[in-house]
Structure formats: C-alpha cells, structure tokens
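Dear U.,

For the methods section draft, I wanted the exact inputs and outputs in one place so we can describe them consistently. I've listed the two proteins in the order they'll appear in the manuscript figures. Please don't edit the token lines directly; just add comments below if something needs changing.

First protein:
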Amino acid sequence: MNNIVVSKHPLVQQKISALRQASNTSQAFRELSDGIGRLLMYEATLDLKLIVDNNIQVQSPISAYHPVSIATQHALVPILRSGLGLLNAASDFLPHAQIHHLGLFREESTLLPVEYYNKLPQKCTVDECIVLDPMIATGGTADAAIKILKTWGVPRIKFVAICVSRQGIERLAKEHPDVQFFVAVIDNELDEQGFVVPGIGDCGDRLNNTGSSKN
C-alpha cells in the first residue's frame, strides 16, 4: 500500500532488535525509542514545504542570502501514555509545532478503544498533524485517534509508530488512504489476546517502569 512507509535504515533495524529485549531497563527502552523516533521523523518530514523570504537578507560569513523556513504549520499528537516516548524526538524536529494530547486505551475484554482525554482546541489552525504512538496492534486505538483528528478538521494526517502488526497497519491504510503511516517494523502475527508477536511489549509500562511486558 502506497501510504505505508517502512524504514529501511540499518540503524532502525538494529535498534528494533535491541528494543525487543525483555531485559532492557526503562532508561534503555526510552533511549532506543527516542533514537528510532528520530529516524522515523526524518522520513515523515521529507516532504515539508519550504518558503524563501526574498524580502529579507541575512549575512553569512561570506555574503548575504535569503533565509528559508518551513511553511507547513504542524501539530504533534502523542497518544497517552506511550506516545510521549516519541515526543522529544518529534518536537526536536519541529520545535514550533503545537502539541496536543489524546488519551485513548484498549479495553482488555473487547479490544475496543476508549477515549478518556481530549483537549483539542475548538478550531484547527494547523496544516498537518503527526500522531505519535509506538505500537499498533489491532489498529483500533489508531483508528479512533485518526477519526478524532478528521472530525477536528485537520487537512493532513501522518502517523509515526515503531512496531505494528500487519493486520492492524493494513486495516488502517485501507480505511484511511489519505493518511501516511511511517513505521519501523511490521510484525506478522497477533495472538489470541490481540498482542503483537514478537512485538516490543507494553510501551507505556516499559517506558515508565510500571510492570507488564506485553503490548
């Protein structure tokens, strides 16, 4: 599917292999997630629009030049709580972006998404939202987040995730052909409880040192 970009960078693959290890400390998991996030953000920002200000001249050590800036207005949208693990990387790439948080979780018995936090402004004033969530399993939470943002009125959505299931990402790409998905790895299996196999575990717990090892 044309709207799924899987990173082919060797460093991403090496970091994914390290990230999977159950023996990682929370610090190691955070550092690896951040490193992968930066490489994915490079991919996600390759098509940003530039504007040259021909009315201003800035002096370099050699001569004057016209400054260049990013024309696209962004919002970064981490899905609580694990999406916060990608926020530092994303905000370093786009330091002037708005940051809006969405609180969504997957109810364990039904596997359906539950929204518990949404403080989006009444009016959308950005050109593009980049959703941040390390894991896509069934795709239900990601689908809910995308629908919330579409209802809000954002013209363009990108989604950055580290580890996704083939079932989940293909579902999302089909249901939202106008959304671009930037991912580090696609795992082929979901178990009977809806966990990605081999996966990277429960990102919220692993980032925050709060227990469970599942995703």
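Second protein (the one for the lower panel):
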Amino acid sequence: MLANQRRDKILDLLKEDGSAKVTDLAKIFKVTEVTVRQDLEKLEKDGLLIREHGGAFLKNIKDQVSSFSVANHDNLDKKELIAAKCLEFIENGDTIILDSGSTTTEIAKKLKGNRHVTVITNALNIALMLGAEPDIEVIMTGGEFKPPTLSLTGQKAADFFKGINVQKLFLATAGLSLKAGLTYPSISDLVVKKAMIDAAETTYLVADSTKFGKSAFASLGALSLINYIITDNGVEENHKEVFRTHEIELIIAD
C-alpha cells in the first residue's frame, strides 16, 4: 500500500472512531511505528488531525459531539432522495433497525410525524431525533461510543441483537466493492453490522452511488448478505450487472 493510500485509510479510521493509537495503526497496516508517526505528522501538517502522545485524534471532534452532528454531508441531495424512497418500504407497525450514518439520519428525519413504528438504533443522534416523537418507540443498543459517528459499536452492541427479530434493516456502508463486498473503516463495526443483518427479515442497503466501486479497510462479506439496494440514479451498468448476478434488487430513488 502506498503512503498516500495508507494515510487516507488512517484518516478514514479516525473519522469513524475519533482517535487511534500508534501501536494499533502499526499492526493494522503492518508497518513500523516510526512509519505511522510519520504518517500522523504529515496529516497533522495538513490540518486533518491532532497528534498526542502515543496516537492522534480527529480535529474538532469535541465541537462535533457537542452539536450532535454527523460529519459526512457529501452528496446530501442524493441521500435525501434515498431517504424519501425508504419511507415507501416502512409500514405502520413495523419494527425496524436504523444503522448509524448520514443516510440513515436522513431516513430518521423523514420518519418524524409520518409513521407509527419501533426503531432500534445504535446511533445516538437518531435516538435523540426520534425519542420525543409520540408515535415512535426508540430502543438503543449498548456498546462503546464512537464520537465522530455518534454511534455505539463493539461486541456489546452486537450482543443486543441476539434473539431479536425485526421486519427491516436499513444498513449503511462506507464502500461497496465488487471484490470485497460491503466494507467499513472500523473493524469494531463488523460484528454489529452482521448481528443487525441476522436479526432482520429483510436488509436494505442504503448508499449513494459514489460508494460503489470503493472499499474501506474492513470487509463484512459478500453482497449476498443484503436483499435490496436503495440508491440514486448514478449507478454504472457494470455494478447493475453484479447486483443482478447476486439476485439483489436495485431500487432507484429519483
């Protein structure tokens, strides 16, 4: 892996987890701690993080948490269209899982005042958004708190879903690779995503088309884990063919 690629993935990890230790990054990327420190020094010079003894943390993370803001606002127009489409598949009385993420946050915004549902989520911002809605029951998982995504993760979050059965899961992803399948920046998320999928009768992957063909650090597994993909109209033909091969129905929001 080239240095620039490694630094991009280090930054992705920080955007997901908030902070990281030099020793952990060295193990993850199979490089020396000296190399990691050089990477962090370069990213700090670029104004993207702040180094501390033994590691680094994301810049402005405290402001982000205090404002309950999810950082990723890229392609917001596409995410709003996807969220509106998702509401067509949520019926009154449903119990659904809303994964953490910027697209699922848009779904939560549109649920307000529109549906009588039970929402299980690992996202603190979604719980706060829907918690006061009289027709929506909100249930949160436990787990370790990740400041940048305002989410709960790890084995404790995954254990929450044992023995639970819900109608629908609206799942986020950092990247969807034809080779690696569903991918995420943080290893700690993999057990949670898999537990969510196991608990749901139907899994809808919600992702704008810019996520297709990209891969993050950690792979959850094959595309066959999902039933539907709800996305925008920017999907390339080669991706459509792969989805058809895996018997995944593509739903276009336009």
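Candidate sentences for the figure legend, describing the second protein: Residues 76-252 form a domain with the Rossmann fold fold (CATH 3.40.50.1360). The two ends are 38 Å apart (CA to CA).

Thanks,
Y.
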